[in-house]
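Hi R.,

Here's the chain you asked about this morning:
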Amino acid sequence: MNFNDIYLNGIDGVTGRYLVDPFSPSGAVAAARGKPPDRDQAGWLGHLRGILLSPFLGLPRGIDPTDVTRSGWGVVFARNTPDNIRRAIEPLLAHRHGQVPASRCKVLEYTMGRSLKDWLKTYGVSTGTVDPTKVPYYLMLVGGPESIPFEFQYLLDIEYAVGRLAFDDAEGYQSYAESVVNYETASAVANAREVVYWAPRHAADPATQMSLDSLVSPLFGGTPPGDGREAEAPVAGELGYTSSALTARDATRDRLLGLLHPGARGSTPAFLFTASHGVGWPKGHANQVPAQGALLCQDWPGSGPVRPGHYLSASDVTDDASVHGLVAFHFACYGAGTLAFDPFLMDRDGGPRPVAERPFIAALPKRLLSHPRGGALAVLGHIDRAWGFSIRPRGLGPQIVPFRNLIGRVLAGEPVGHATKDFSEKYASLSASLLDALDKSRPGERLDEVDLAWAWVERNDAQNYIVLGDPAVRIRVDLLRPTPVPGSPGGVSP
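And here is the predicted structure, written out as tokens:
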């Protein structure tokens, strides 16, 4: 495997080729230099680095960010949100109003075109300070990216715990709202105290080899001591969960479907982590909206066109599936959504490359969240390509602490929106450093070209993880069932 070239996850559903051809660090440097540094944003991100390392994350001292009743909860509607959608999520709003004091439970509004700084100013807050009596820490955006842009979400998410609801109709919003209320008020849940990892590994494919060997394997099995570092136990075992891994030849479509349709097995895992290629389709293709970000399975032979039996998409999650209470993380290209234009790999002379007719949320997480038998609590994923090689920077072993910490926080029962804080910290830190490195007016030593390229890749990867769902949801750790008996679809794969 060539660790010097940069591979992005994502396979073209028509050709079976990489969506973006592997490129050298010099190519990344050219793209990184394509946009001059924003000094105001560099200063803000640099200021946030220190705040994100503090235990209170910009909240008033003494307020635990995991305590939603103190840190606050709010819903952010796009100004043009239809009344039927506002009514559809009333069950969830009423439920949160019963949990969070009125002074910290807010209904806010976003107008298209407003910058984050201006939007916060509307409510009497500046960047770098979280006042839950004005803008709560937990914020649920309601509406698709055509009314509340992805860019607003990932900038807001640096300081706040942010999630998004975006469905095709009011019924989807209502189904999710009622599902969360039912889960949080139930006396029993159907989920097992179990984590399942699922990761294909295709021959001659550095992207899936990297994501399995350097991400999933150490998350599942822990890491041995070496090079001056201590051994790390599997994060699931540390928190009293059992875990299983469906990897390489076992990461088939049928095995993944079996986790979502457990049947006689009875229980759905509390947490599902998938690492694979996401399937992408050309702009205007009939499959782009219904299948963009579908999870490419081991069934794909590793080359040639992608067939429906090679991937798992929203249409494969039938009405008899059992996903209520699940938290899923899809490490896959376009696993959470798609932007209209490629934000990173630009033709600096010709302008940004169009990717889709409009930005949109991926269909698979929408299906999981709004399932008629009870939806998933949250789905985490990328709104662009997943930059798998960011987990192994030049000259270093796997750098997966943000993933370990996220999984650990979710399994411990912390709110899902807060669990992503390490990615926010990493994004802020790398962005500030990258902007400084690209600012020729600043004194001091410069990063060499390769280090600059890897900083750009790591920043891009950290930026685009988003939460779909209410960011305040959490696993009911007190009610999880024992793990299913041996012989279930889970199991350890080589």
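One quick note: Residues 11-468 form one domain.

Cheers,
M.
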